[in-house]
């Protein structure tokens, strides 16, 4: 083969390669923004969930966080599945979240549109206090101290009492209480603003969730797990941010408002 033929063959191959390459499609279409972003409040943690994207070339999701509802959202993680647990948080501080989706070509969607924010709060399990006449020094509970206290102590938020054969949770002066009924602990997401018991006393029942509005404007909840005439065992959660009614799920922007009672 002459040099001229070789050159012509090479030139033809190059033209074919250029034409073929020019016909290929470059993916520049990003996925849709994720939808349904929601959170569950934890103790020094925030659990995020959203609806999975349906794009066949989906590669994963990016999670962004900010300390304000607008402004710069910082990338904190990339995940493959539609959920994430943020453990780099502090109790009592509100965090704002958004999520994007990206594909195998590197295209990234816009951020999710939901207003999703969360305020982690401490929680505890299997706390035990005693009937006030049976063991008065351990008959009360103080949410801000996370421990039992004497039922007569100024720091006591509520105590356990049995009167005329009825087992009672008694809110101390300045604290409000109400029985929300038989629920799982995480079913109660926000403390209500009305419906509080006028007498400050509610019957203690296993499986019931009780919400408290303390004299210093904090919200808390307990769920009774075991009960007798001498003691009560419960799980608890306490919102350290004053006036913040959020106890589990972040679904309403209203949780960031401050509220007060006399």
How would you briefly describe this protein structure?
By secondary structure, the protein is mainly β. It is 8% helix and 38% strand.
List the keywords.
262 residues; mainly beta; five-stranded antiparallel sheet; 8% helix
Helix-strand layout with pairing:
Elements lengths: L2 H21 L14 E4 L4 E4 L8 E9 L7 E6 L3 E4 L8 E9 L12 E3 L4 E8 L9 E3 L4 E3 L8 E6 L2 E6 L4 E7 L18 E3 L4 E6 L5 E9 L3 E8 L10 E2 L12
Antiparallel strand pairs: 1-2, 1-18, 2-5, 3-4, 3-6, 6-7, 8-17, 9-10, 9-11, 11-12, 12-14, 13-15, 15-16, 16-17
Radius of gyration (Å) = 28 Å
- Total DSSP E strands: 18
- β-strand percent reads 35-45%
Mean pLDDT: 88
Order of helices and strands: HEEEEEEEEEEEEEEEEEE
Report low-confidence residues grouped into runs of 5 or more. Answer: 4-22, 249-257
Straight-line distance between termini:
101 Å
Instruction: Give a short account of the largest sheet.
Output: 5 strands, antiparallel
Global structural class: mainly beta
Shape: elongated
Q: Report strand order across the widest sheet.
A: 8-17-16-15-13
Number of helices: 1
Helix content: under 10%
Write up what this structure looks like.
With 262 residues, the protein is mostly beta strands. Helices cover 8% and strands 38% of the residues. The strands form four sheets. Strands 8-17-16-15-13 form a five-stranded antiparallel beta sheet, with no helix packed on it. The chain has a five-stranded antiparallel beta sheet with strand order 10-9-11-12-14, with no helix packed on it. The chain has a four-stranded antiparallel beta sheet with strand order 5-2-1-18, with no helix packed on it. The chain is elongated and about 85 Å long. Residues 4-22 and 249-257 have low confidence and may be disordered.
């Amino acid at each position: 083969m002459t040099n001229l033929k070789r050159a012509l063959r090479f030139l033809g191959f190059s033209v074919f390669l250029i034409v073929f390459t020019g016909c290929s499609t470059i993916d520049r279409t990003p996925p849709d923004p994720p939808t349904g972003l929601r959170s569950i409040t934890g103790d020094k943690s925030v659990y995020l969930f959203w609806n999975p994207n349906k794009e066949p070339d989906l590669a994963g999701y990016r999670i962004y966080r900010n300390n304000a509802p607008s402004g710069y959202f910082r990338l904190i993680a990339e995940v493959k599945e539609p959920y994430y647990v943020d453990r780099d948080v502090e109790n009592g501080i509100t965090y704002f979240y958004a999520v994007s989706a990206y594909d195998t070509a590197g295209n990234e969607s816009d951020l999710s549109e939901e207003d999703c924010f969360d305020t982690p709060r401490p929680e505890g399990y299997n706390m035990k206090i005693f009937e006030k006449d049976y063991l008065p020094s351990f008959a009360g509970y103080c949410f801000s101290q996370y421990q039992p206290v004497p039922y007569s102590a100024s720091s006591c938020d509520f105590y356990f009492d049995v009167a005329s054969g009825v087992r009672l949770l008694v809110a101390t002066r300045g604290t409000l209480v109400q029985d929300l009924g038989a629920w799982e602990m995480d079913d109660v997401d926000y403390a209500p603003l009305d419906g509080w018991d006028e007498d400050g006393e509610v019957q203690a029942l296993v499986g019931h969730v009780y919400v408290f509005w303390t004299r210093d404007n904090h919200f808390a909840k307990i769920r009774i797990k075991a009960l007798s005439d001498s003691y009560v065992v419960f799980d608890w959660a306490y919102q350290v941010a004053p006036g913040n009614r959020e106890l589990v799920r972040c679904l309403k922007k209203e949780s960031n408002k401050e509220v007060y009672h006399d």
